[in-house]
Amino acid sequence: MTTIEPGAVDPLAAERAARMTWARLVEPREDKGRPLIAEHGHLGALARVRHDPTLLGRAAVARLTAFDLSRELRAADLVEARVLIPGDPEWPLSLDDLALPPHCLWVRGPADLRAVTERSAAVVGARTASAYGRQLAAEISAGLAGRGFTIISGAAFGIDAAAHHGALAVDGLTVAALACGIDRAYPAAHTNLLKEILERGAVVTEMPPGSAPIRTRFLDRNRVIAALSLGTVVVEAGLRSGSLNTARHAAECGRYVGAVPGPVTSVTSAGTHELIRTREAELVTDAAEVAELLGVMGDDLAPARRGPDRPEDRLGRKERTLWEALPASRGAPLSRLVEATGMSASDVLQALGSLNLIGMAVRDRGGWRKPPEPKLEDTSP
Amino acid sequence: MTTIEPGAVDPLAAERAARMTWARLVEPREDKGRPLIAEHGHLGALARVRHDPTLLGRAAVARLTAFDLSRELRAADLVEARVLIPGDPEWPLSLDDLALPPHCLWVRGPADLRAVTERSAAVVGARTASAYGRQLAAEISAGLAGRGFTIISGAAFGIDAAAHHGALAVDGLTVAALACGIDRAYPAAHTNLLKEILERGAVVTEMPPGSAPIRTRFLDRNRVIAALSLGTVVVEAGLRSGSLNTARHAAECGRYVGAVPGPVTSVTSAGTHELIRTREAELVTDAAEVAELLGVMGDDLAPARRGPDRPEDRLGRKERTLWEALPASRGAPLSRLVEATGMSASDVLQALGSLNLIGMAVRDRGGWRKPPEPKLEDTSP
C-alpha cells in the first residue's frame, strides 16, 4: 500500500510531504504556485517559497510555517486514510488529464483506486431531485454496475445518493469523491452511506483533513469526479446544479457526457435539457445506452430500439392496403373499396378473401368492415 | 382564386386536368409515371400513356379510361374545394422542395395556402399521446401561433388534435393536411375540429375525392406536412409513430426538426428521444425555443436560461467562502473556521462581522453558525 506507515520506507516520502504541504498552502485550482510547481516541481517550488515568502502571500506563508507533517500523518491514520501521489501504483492516471490535477489524494476503503476507476462512470445530478430522477439514477447505476462499471459520485443528497445506492444494491463498486477533508462525513446524514461505500469501494478527496466543504471546493471536487471516470451521466439537474459543472469538466478532459431527459415541465430537468440542446451531452435513457457511450467499441452496444409488432405488419401489400381502407364501423360496398384504395375490383375481392380467412375483415350490412376491436393504440404509420 | 369555376377562364386548365388525372392514376410517391412526367411534363406524359397503355399497367389504364373531369370538378365543388397546381398564385412554393411533389392539391378554407405557410410550424406526434404530451402540444402551438406562426398538423387523435386546438385557442391560424380525399372527415370524431380549422385556416390533401386514408397515404401526407412548414416539432412519439416519418421528411427537404423530451419511462417519448439521440432533431422544450429554431435569425431568439438568484451570490469572495464553511447547526469556534476555510484568523473575523451585519451569520454556543433556515433547495454550486 501507499500509506506512509511508521517504519516503512516510502521512496516518494519527500515528494509526498511536499505535495501534502501544497494541498494546505493553496486551494486546488488556485493559480498561485502553479507556475512555480510547473517549473520546479512540488519540492523545488516549496524550497523557493521558503526562500522568498512574497511568492505566495502572507496567509500562505503562515500556513507553510504551521505545516506539521507528523500531525498530518496522524490525521490521516486516524481515519485509516492513505495519501496517493503520482508515481504510486494506485494513483489514477486519468487524473493527469486535468489541467490542474490534485496535488495529492486522500483515499479510504479497500478498493485499488486506479484499478476500479479504469471502467467507471460518474452518475451525478441535482440534490433536490424528483422521485423520477432518483429512480433513474439508481436504475442506471445498478445497470452499469451490473456491467462491471464502478459508479463514481459525490455522496450528496438526491441523485448522488441514489447513484451510490443503485450500485450498492447490485453489490457493485462505488466511489465517493468529497469536497471536504477525508476525516469528515459530508453531508452528515450520509454517514452510513459513506460507511457502506467504504466496505468494498473507496472515498477520496484532494482536500486535507479538517477542510470544510465550501463552494469552490465542490467545483474542485467535480473535476476530480469527471476525470476519474470514463464519462459522466447527469440524471437530473436544475439550471444551476453543480452537476452541469461536472459535465463540463468531463467534456474538457475528453470524457463522454450523457444526460437523461425528463418532463420539460420539471425544473430539475431544465439543466439536462440544456446540456442536450447545446450538444454538450448525448441524450441517454438507460444503462445500456450509457454503457455503449462509455464502453469499448462493439463490446457494449445498446440494443436497437423498435416498436411492437402488429398483426397487420404480416399482411401482403394489397391485403394491407385494403385492410387500412376497411371502415371500423358500417361495412363499405365493393365499389367504395375500389375507389378508396385505387385497386382493381378483382384485387379487392381477392384481398377481402384473404383477410376474411384470418379474421381481419368481416361482412356487415352488405359490405365489408374491420372486425370490432375496442382498443386504443397508436397505429399511425 | 384558383378554383375552376363554371364560365371562368382557367389559363392552366389543361395542365390542371392532366395533374388531376395523374392523381387518380398513381399513388403520390409511386415511381410509375414519374420518369415520364419528368421528361414530358404531366400533359405530355399523359398523351404517351394514352398512346402506349403498357407504360403504366392494366389497373392504371382502367382508371385513365374511367377518368371523368366534370365528375371530379363536381366532387370538389360539392365541398367547396379548389384544386391548386404549380403556377397558381396560391401554390406553396415550399412543396417544390420535395423529391416527389404532389401532382395537385385539393384545398378548402379561406386562408391563402402559400401566404399562411410562409411562417409556419408543423406540430405532430403520437395518437396515443399522454396528458403531458397533449398539454405541451397545445402550449407550444399556442405560443407559436401567438408569435405569428401557422400551425400545420394532421388532424389525427392525440398530439395533432392538441396542436390544432392550441392554435385555435389563441385565434391563431392552423392548417390540416389529410391522408384521404378532401370530401372526407377523418377521423370522423374530428368533424367539428376540421370545421373549426376551416373557419379561418385551411384543410389540404393531394388525394382525390373519395380516397381512403390508408397506410401509404399517411406517409405521403406526412411529407406534405413536412414540406409545407419551416420546420417540424415532434411532441411525443412512440418508436413506430408516423410523426418520426414526418420528421425525417422534414430533414430531407432541409427543414428544421425539433423534438420534445419526456420521462424516459414513457413509451410515448421513446421516439422523440431517439430522434434527439441520433441528432435527427434538436431538443426543444417550449415555443420560444421552437421559434428560435424556425425564425429569422435574431428575430425569434429564445431567452437564455438561468437559475434563480440567491442571497449568497451577492457576497464578496471571502464572505462567501466563510458563509459556506459555517455550520448549519451548532456554532463552530474561530480556530475551526480558520482550518476549514484556509483563511487567516483576521480575515475570518472580518468576514464574520460582515455576515453578522446582514443576518447571514449568528452566534451559537461560543461559536458561529448560519442562521436557522428550514428550506430544501439545490444549492450545489
UniProtKB/TrEMBL annotation, chains A, B:
Q: Where is the Smf/DprA SLOG domain?
A: 83-293
In the record, biological process GO terms are:
DNA-mediated transformation
Transmembrane region(s): none
A Pfam family that this protein carries is DNA_processg_A
Please name the Gene3D superfamilies in this protein's record: 3.40.50.450
Read off the InterPro entries from this record.
DprA, DrpA_SLOG
Q: Which SUPFAM superfamilies match?
A: MCP/YpsA-like
Domain of life of the source = Bacteria
What family does the entry list? Belongs to the DprA/Smf family.
Per its UniProt record, what NCBIfam families does this chain match?
dprA
Give the protein name, as stated in the record: Smf/DprA SLOG domain-containing protein
- Source organism lineage? Bacteria, Bacillati, Actinomycetota, Actinomycetes, Micrococcales
